[in-house]
Amino acid sequence: MSTTISSSYKHFDTSLQLRGNLHTHTTRSDGQVSPQEMINAYAEMGYDFLALSDHNTVSDFSQLDDRGLLLVPANEITTTDGHLLCLGTTASIPCEKSTQETIDSVLLAGGIPFLCHPSWNKTFNHYSYEFLSSLTGYAGIEIFNGSIIEDPGSPLALDKWDRLLAAGHNLWGLATDDAHYPFQRGRGCCIALTRDRSLEALLTALRCGGFYASTGPSIQSITIEGSSVRLTAPEAEVIRVIGESGRVLSSVPGTEITFEATDCRWPYFRIEILAAGGGQAWTQTFGIQSPETSRRRELIANKPVLKALRVHTASDLSGDLPAELWEKTRKFDDFLVAEVADKPQAATEICCLLSDTSLFFDIKCTEPFIEKLSAGKTQENKARLFTDDSVELFIDVGCTSTSYLHVVANAQGISYAKALGPKRTRFNTENSEIPTKVSKSTDAWRLQIEIPLITLGCSEAPSRGQIWGFNATRNRTPVSELSQFSFTGEDNHSPQRFGHLTF
Ligand SMILES: [Zn+2]
Ligand SMILES: [Zn+2]
Question: pTM of whole model > 0.85?
Answer without folding.
Answer: no
